[in-house]
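HUMAN: Spend a minute on the protein record below and explain its fold to me.
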Amino acid sequence: PTSTLVERQLVANQINQACTDIGFFAIVNHGIPPQTIDVLLRSSREFFDMSTEDKLAAKSTDDKEYPYGYERSEVLSKGKSLDGAGTNGGEGECSPDLKETFSLGPRFSADEGQLARRWPPHHPANFISTHE
């Protein structure tokens, strides 16, 4: 379906408001079969269940060149400190968020002059095919 600039801006504003007020948004009626989502979630869970050593092999060695891959040190404590959550009665340092991530980055072709996606050297079956 096509949309006008005004309609796209309305959706962008709604996404912005959801992220600002709630912290996330969910896309529904996207047409992705539930079976595809199940396989994706299962392979993602299997990746994060791997040993720390295997996951760290997927970490970028140069974030300026390739800011994607496995990450386990993202700290979101600044936001928690702003509202007093995660501290002792609102005072003191916040404990770090223990979140792990794996980000792919955009898909480029070799002729676009960009770096190709880097896949973890150790990964569960179906990890690459379900994340493409």
